[in-house]
Queue: 3 jobs
Job 1
Amino acid sequence: MDMTVTFPGGARVDAQFGPHIIRTDQPAQAGGEGSAPAPFTLFLASIGTCAGIYVLGFCRQRGLPTEGVQIVQRILPDPRTGMVGTVELDIQVPPDFPEKYHEALIRAASQCAVKKHLENPPQFAVRTVVSELAA
């Protein structure tokens, strides 16, 4: 899938793929307007929302209600690097959620494609390409 990244002004950077546009901006203290999430925030959100898709799918397949179910994600920095050290995902369920499904919810969330890609990261190839279209 190709994605085109453009610079609409200020500190905003947008990504377009198919009919969708993901808008990003930097917070005011970083020179932006805070009009959209920062790119790194979207990256972090992709982890929790991906796990959420798997939890939602698990519940739907079994006819389990999702009312009161939510995932709380915590990012714990690595004190040596300051980068993400641990990602905690707490799947919160209401008291009447069947206990027999608690471990299965964890297994479902663990199937998240974003998580799997982080565990086996891709290689990056970054280059400059002169494009006639950009002129």
Note: The helical segments are 39-62, 102-109, 113-119.
Job 2
Amino acid sequence: MAKMNLGIFIIKKRKQIKMSSRQLALACKITPPYLNDIEKNRRIPSFEVLSKLAKELKLGEQDIYQLFDLAVDESKGKVSYDIAEYIMDNDDLRQCIRYVIKMNDNAIWKDLLNQINQEGQL
């Protein structure tokens, strides 16, 4: 079985909702050849296109995260588009991340995640 990548993921989700690649491309306001390049892993879509794909494919929250993570895996980036955009829009969060980097202590994140889980937020 082929390793999951962005193209395979999109094709799989598209077929689940019985949508042709042409229908998906037109719904996302992109050209069919561009979608074909995405599905064949020849091009990595922008955040905007990924968001349109997620909407038109009717993805749930976890699938949306996987879509963004697969896109960053393909582009050899370090942070998924959705996370990077959120970080850049949030000064407090950037300060927290820089603090943890400076302290070189990942236990801070584990403690925060445990606290969130205990409060039933995840």
Note: The chain has two domains: 6-79, 90-118.
Job 3
Amino acid sequence: MPIPVHPNFTDADLVAIYAYLQRIPAVRNRVPDPRPPAAAAVASN
């Protein structure tokens, strides 16, 4: 959603968006372990 649109939402719009998000199933996925930034990995070698 474009940022300029957000201030134009009515309370009814926000209730509808919230209701929709509550109905869709959660995504189940494993989050990968963090990795160091590429520059740090190169500098340590």
Note: The chain has a mean pLDDT of 84.
